[in-house]
Amino acid sequence: MRYFFLYSELYQQKYILESVILKYRSQSGQVKQGPVEQGKVKQEIQSASVQSNEARFRALLEATHDWVWEMDADGMYTCSSPEVYDLLGYHPEEIIGKTPFDLMANDEAGRMSAEYSRCMLAQQAFTATENTSLHRQGHEVMLETSGVPVFNDQGMFCGYLGISRDITDRKLADVALKSKDNHYRLLLESVQAIPWEVDMPSWRFIYVGPQAVKVLGYPQKDWYEEDFWLRHMHPDDRNWVPEFCIESTEKMLHHEFDYRMYSKDGRLVWIRDSVNVIIADGEPILLRGFMFDVTAQKCKEEAFELSQQRLLEAQRIARLGHWDWDMSSGGIDGGEMYWSDEHYRICGDVSAVTKASYKKFLDYIHPDDRDKWKQAVRDALSKGSYSLDFRIVLKNSDARYIHWQCQVQYDDASRPVRMFGTIQDVSERKYLENALKGISRFFPSDGISEYYRTCVESFAHVYNTPYAFIGLYSDDSKSRITTQAVWANGCFVDNFEYELAGTPCSDVIDMKIELIAEHAARLYPLDTMLTDMGVESYFGAPMISVSGKKLGIIAVMDKKPMKVTPWTEPILGVFAQRIASYLENIHASEKLEASEKELRNIFHNMQDTFYRTDNEGTITRLSESVEQLLGYEIDELIGTSASDLHIVPDRQRDLIEQLNEGNGSVQGFDAGLKRKDGSVVWVSTNAQYYRDASGKPQGIEGLVRNISQHHEAELKMQKMSSALEQTADMVMITDHRGMVEYVNPAFEKTTGYLRKSILGKPSRVLKSGKQSADFYNNLWRTILSGNVFRDVLVNRKKNGDLYYEEKIITPIKNSKGEIINFVATGRDITERMQHEERLSFMAHHDALTELPNRTLFMDRLKQSLAHARRYEKKIAVLFIDLDRFKNINDTLGHDTGDQMLTEVAARLGKNIRQEDTVARLGGDEFSVLLTNIEAEQDASLMAEKILLSLSVPLQLDQQELFITASIGISMFPSDGVDAGTLLKNADIAMYKAKDLGKDNYQFYSTDMSARAFQRLTMENSLRRALEREEFVLFYQPQVNIKTDRISGAEALVRWKHPELGLVSPSDFVPLLEETGLIAPVGYWIFESACKQLKIWHDMGFSGLEMSINISGRQFHSKNFVEKIENIIKENNCSSEMIEIEITESVLMENQHNSMPALEALDDIGFKIAIDDFGTGYSSLSYLRHFRIDTLKVDQSFVRDVNEDPDDAAITSAIIAMAHSLNLRVIAEGVETYQQLEFLKQRQCEYVQGYLFSRPLPVDEFTKLLKKYFFSNLGAGL
After folding, report:
1. Domain 191-299, CATH
2. Where is the PAC domain (predicted)?
3. Of 314-318, 1176-1180, 1258-1262, which one has max mean pLDDT?
4. Longest Cα pair distance anywhere in the chain, in angstroms?
5. Which of 62, 349, 726, 1048, by CA, is between 20 and 30 Å from 804?
6. pLDDT, tens digit, for every residue of 918-952?
7. Residue 784, SS3 per DSSP
8. Do 8-173 and 606-706 agree at the fold level?
C-alpha cells in the first residue's frame, strides 16, 4: 500500500510507524507480508536523508515502552503492540476490532472523535493529544497520543497510525504542583502590598502581583512594558529614585524609599518600596520586593505638619505664647525652662537668644507687679492652676499687659515636678478697658449739648491736651463742619463753622483716623487756626453710624509733639464709636416717636380693622374701623369672646392651630363673621402672637380686611373654573397688567408650571425670545384697544423646551368699560407645526442624507447665476456619480447602500465652503455648486479634495468598502449661462470621466456632447432591444483535449442593432449593468440557451454541455435560484448538462449570500465554473469552501504562456491547484498550436478559442456539431 502525506517529516514518521506495525503483525500472525512488500514501500522513499531518519526512528520506537497501534477507516484497531497490556490491561489480540472510543467515557469519546475527524479532513497529524481511557479493571488512565491519518494513491482515507503513552503519574504530579503553586501564589497575593520582581541587568519587571490593579489601576501586563515604572512616576522623583536604586543595588544593599506615582485615574499615590537584592556569584541578578500604598500615612503626616504650622500661626496672630518649666530638680529658683518663639516676641526679645529662666522672666515683670506674680506662682503650686493679669516692661521702657495662665503637674508624692502654661499680650484690651472706665463717668443723660461738653472735656483729660472738640457735618457734601463743643486751654469756647479743605480734618472724611504726632501746622499751612493756636500735633477720628453714615469728627490737639502708643488710636476710635452710637440712638428715638405718631394716625384712619385678644380669646383692643366692618360700637365688643363673632365657632381654634404651625404668625386666614344686623361679612386676617419682654405669648393681634366682594367673585370664579378645569385647551386669566391670576390643569400639564408657582407672576415668563419685540408690541396694542388677538406664539416650557401655541386673548371689561382682565386660551400645536416644517424641509431636501434635493439645488444655482451676472463672477457645477454603487447596493443590500450614501454626503459636506452647496440629485448622483471662484483651478482643487476624501475606506457592518467617484465639471459662463445647461454639461463631463477609467474628474468640452448623445441613443435603444428581439446568442465550442472532440458550448450574447448592425458586447454589456437591464436580459439568455441545448440533445448530441454566464446583479437578485430552476423545468432541460459561469469577484463581494446560493445550485444538479480565474482574489480558501466544479483560466494568461515566464508559471499553478482539488480546467483564448501544446503538457482537460472556432450563430454551430461532435476535431483543423 502506498501512503501519501502532506509533509515530508510526517511521511518519514508514518513510514517508521508502518514498519513497526508490520513487525508486530508478522509476530502476531495477523498478516502475512514479507520483505518484498516492505521493500516496495521503502522504494518510495527517494532521499538518503529520509532513509537515515527511518533507521533512527525505528530504533527509537522499538526501544520505547509506548503503545504503537493502527486503525482502519472505520476507527477499529487492526494492529497493536504488546505495551497495550501495560497501559490498559488488554492483550494485543483483545484490542483488535475495538475502537478507541469503546475504551472512553461518552463525553471523552465525543471529544476525541471530533479531534480525529478534524485531523482526517485537514490531512494533518495530531501530536500530544491528551485523553482519558478506561483500564480493563475500571480505573481511568491518562494517555498522550500522537498519530497521522493515512491515505492511499487515490487520496482515499484508510485509517490512522499512532503512538500512545501513559501520562497518569505526570498529570497527577502536575495537579499537585499547580495546587501547591496556587497555594503559595494566593498566599502572596493576599498580602496588602504589590509583590514584584525585576530582572537584572535589564531593569524590567518580570512579575507584578494582581494587587497592582487595586492600588494603581494599571493592568498587570502594562508593568512589563519598557520604562513603565519611570513613565508613571512623579517628575520630581524621576531624577533621584533611579540613581538611588542603582547605587544601592551596586552596593548590594537592601533598601527602602518613598516616592510618588500617578494612578490610572490621575490620582497621586505615595509608594513605599522595600527592595531585596538577590545575589549570585557575587553579582546582583534579581530585585524582589513589595510596594506599599502609604498615601494615607503621608496625608496624615502632612496634615499634622500643617496643623502644627497653623497652631504656631494662630498663636502669633492671637499674641499667645506658651512655656514649660521643669521643677523636678531645681524647685522654684532652678530647673529648666522653655519659652516658645511667640513668648520671646511678647517679651520684646525678637532674636530669642536669652536663655529662659525664672529669674529672667522676673526681670521682665513691672516692679509694681513682681510680688503679685510671685504670690500667683505660690498659689498655683498649692492649688494646681492659676491665672493673672500683670505688666511687663520692654527694653524701650514701654509697658505691656500680660494674661498669664499656668497648670502644675505633681509626682506620686504630690511634689510639683512641672509647671506649664501660656502668656497672652492683652495690652490693647486693657488700655481700652481703662479708657472706657475713665470716660463712662462723664456720660450724663440730661441734654445733648451737655453730653457733647462732657465728652470733649474727657478727651482733653485722657490725652492730656489743651484742645479738644466735637463737630458735625453741616451739609451732605461733607465740605463744612459745625462744632458742637470746643475745649480750649481749660474752658469751653463758642461753637463755630469752618471749611474742611486744607485742614487735617479733611483727611478724616475718608473714614480713617488721622494722627499727626508733630509739625501739624507746617504740614497744613492753609489752616491758619493751627498756627494761631500754636498746634504741633493733631489726632482726629470720624464718627460713623452702624449703617456706615458719616456723622462728624472728634479731635484732640496739643502744642507739643504727641507721644504715640499702640493704644492711642484704638481709644479715640472707641470714643468716636460711642458718641456715634449715642447720636444714632437719639436720632432713632426721634424717628420712633414720629413713627408712632404717624402709626396712631394710620391706626385710627385705616380701613382695615386692628384687633387684639388675650390668651383666652377675649377682645381687649379694636380700631375704630370695626364699627363700619361689623356695625358694633367698640365698647360693645371689648371684653367679649372673638369666637362668638365667627359663623363657624371652631374657626378661632383653627386660627390658633395655624399660628402654632406658622411659628407664631399667619397670613391670609379667611373666615366669615357675623355683623350686628345678622348678615355675614367675609374677612381675611393677618395675625400674630404678641409677647412680653421674656418672649412669652400674651395673646393674638392682627389686621382684618373685608374681602366679601372678592369672596363672591371667587365663588363665581370657582363655578367658571369647574368648567375651565375640564377643558383640554390651556386657559390663563391675568389682570389688566398681565399678572397671572388663574391657570387650568391643561396649562400646568403643557407648560410644566404649577398653578401655585406662577400665580402673581407676569405672563411673559412663557416668552421664548423667538419672536420679535414688534410682534409683542402688536399683541399688546391689539388687546389694550379692546380687540381680540389671534395668532401662533412660540413659548417656552418650564424645562426649557419650546412649543407652538395657537392663542386667543380676549379683554374683559367692567361696567365702566375699563379692561380689568385678559382671558387667554391656547392649544399646543407643536406636532402640527413641526410636521409642516418637516414637510417644507422634505420638499427641498433629500430624505436619506438631508442634503438639498434637485429642486433646491436648481433654485440656488439660478440665484447664484443672477448674482454672478451682476458682479461678473465665475461659477462651477460639479456632477458626482459613485462608481460601482449599483453592484454594492445589489450585493450587500439597500441598507448598506443607504449607509454608504449617508457617509458620502457627510464627507462632501466637510469639504465645501459655507457659501457653496452640495446636493443629492437622486440615486448615487450628487452635485456641488461653487460660487464666486476665480478660475477653473478652484474647481479642480475642490474635485481633488472630494476624490481624496472618498478614497478613505468605509467601515460598514465589519466590512471594509472602497468608494470612488467620477466627477464632471462645467463652468459659468464658458459652458452654459442657464442652470439646466450647466447641470447637463457637468453630467456629460462625468460620463467622460467614467469612460476614462473612473475615479477622476473631467471638465466639459463641446465634443463631449456628441459622444453623450451617442451614448444616450444607445441606452434608449438598449431599453427596447429585448422586446424587439434584437438580442441573439452565439456559441463557442469547448473542446476535450484528450479526445479532440467538442464537449460543450459557451452561450455568448450579441446585439443586432437595426441601424448600427452587430454591436460588440464590450459596448453594450456595461450599459446593461448600469441601467439594471442585465437581470431581465440575463434570464432571457439563460432560457434561450436551455431551449437550444434541448434542441441539440433531441438531434442526438446528448453529451453536449452548455456554459452560461451569470452577472453579479442577477446572481445576487431575489429568487435567482428559484427562477432558473423553473426555466429548466419548463423547457424539460437537464441541469446536469448546464454549467453556470460566475466570476470570482462576484462570489467574494458577498460570501455570506454566495455560499447558500452555490449550495442550492449544486443540489439542483448544476455545475459551477469560476470564470476568469486568476484575475481577482484567486484564493485557495474559498475554492475549498465553495461547491465548484470547474476553473476557467483567463485568456490574458493563456495568450503569452509561450513568451512570458510569469504567465506560464501562473497558468501551470492554476492547473495543478485545480487538479489537487479535483476540479476540471478550461483554458480560454487558445489561438495557437504552441499554446495548445503547452496546455496538453500540463494535463489541462478542456480548451476553447479561435484555434478551434470563433463564436458562431446557432445555424453555423449546428453544422459544426454535425461535422465534429462524433469525430476528431483536431483532424479538421
Report:
1. 3.30.450.20
2. 127-179, 255-306, 386-438, 667-719, 788-841
3. 1258-1262
4. 161
5. 726
6. 999 988 999 999 999 988 889 999 999 999 999 99
7. helix
8. yes
